[in-house]
Amino acid sequence: MLQDPKVIGWDAAGIVEEIGDSVTLFKKGDEVYYAGDITKSGSNSEFQIVDERIVGKKPAKLTYNEAAAMPLTTLTAWEILFDRMRINEKDQGKTILIIGGAGGVGSIAIQIAKKIAGLTVLATASRAESVEWCKQQGADYVVNHRDLVNEVRNAGFQQVDFILDFVDVNQYWDSFAELISPQGAIGSISDPTQPVNLRQLKSKSVSFHWELMFTRSMFQTKDIAEQHYILNKASEYFDKGILQTTLTATLDGLSADNLKTAHRQLESGSTIGKLVINYEK
After folding, report:
1. What domain range is 123 assigned to?
2. I need a labelling partner for 11 at 20 to 30 A (CA). Which of 131, 204, 232, 234 fits?
């Protein structure tokens, strides 16, 4: 049990009420969105103090609810694709397999991989509604994760250039090692319960990349302001209609009951897209 209470909750969208003396990126009254800092109090509160360097300009064409659904997952997907795996314009047309396509990160990762990186996207899903959701996000192919290798090959691909794991790296590791192309790259955000055997990747010279969206704020990295720029760039894509919000459910009222309901839903493992709690004064 914590000695001092900790406010959790990360994604948020709202209006700047006050600024500090050293703030240069925003002014009072600005509409913003952000994913916060895991080492500080979170967004499950009426007011929150946030470092301006990890805050972006809210997309003008999205409602506060639609915008609040997006920062953490967008930053995670953007960072793992472009900062960690270093995917660039030379990779257009290459193949990427996204594990957990209907989840929060998977949903926006499909969009970014397809519409911004120009990749051919394979995403995993098993239920009819999650398969349809992945297609709506832009997936070229949807495969069942329960028989991953055969499903990918039945879709016409012996191997893929990139793999993103948003579910469980241990569960799929042997399949990843088999499916990844020589000199390909694998990225993951999951928390393995067992060691990952990187030796399985050596013969193919495959690289492996971890991603934690909170790294920059946790360690106050020299490039921490990169999250400000990523969110602003994403905001432009949302406003142009290139990217779409992945909000699928909203609970009205910032209350203990709604927080419990939201966490139960997220912990069920069946959530499609993102869930937001709407708070209005």
Report:
1. 87-211
2. 131
Asked whether the beta carbons of 273 and 250 are under 8 A apart, the reply is: no
- Residue 264 Cα to chain centre, angstroms: 20
- Can you say how many angstroms the Cα of residue 208 is from the centroid of all Cα atoms in its chain? 18
Residue 243 lies in a domain: yes
Q: Kindly report, residue by residue over 21-54, the tens digit of the pLDDT.
A: 999 999 999 999 999 999 999 888 889 999 999 9
- Domain end call among 152, 185, 211: 211
Cα–Cα distance measured from residue 160 to residue 158, given in angstroms and rounded to the nearest whole number: 7
| Phi and psi at residue 52, to the nearest 5° | -60, -25
pLDDT tens per residue across span 190-237:
999 999 999 999 999 999 999 999 999 999 999 999 999 999 999 999
Pair 187, 211: CB distance under 8 Å:
yes
Beta strands in the chain (DSSP E): 12-15, 31-34, 55-57, 95-99, 120-124, 141-143, 160-165, 180-188, 207-210, 247-252, 274-278
Instruction: State how many domains the chain has.
Output: 2
Whether residue 163 sits in one domain with residue 99: yes
Cα 133 from chain centroid?
16
* Global confidence as pTM: 0.93
Check: CB of residue 149 under 8 Å from CB of residue 174.
no
Distance between CA atoms of residues 215 and 79, nearest Å: 11
Residues 115-139: what's their mean pLDDT?
96
User: Distance between alpha carbon 13 and the CA centroid of its chain, in Å?
Assistant: 16
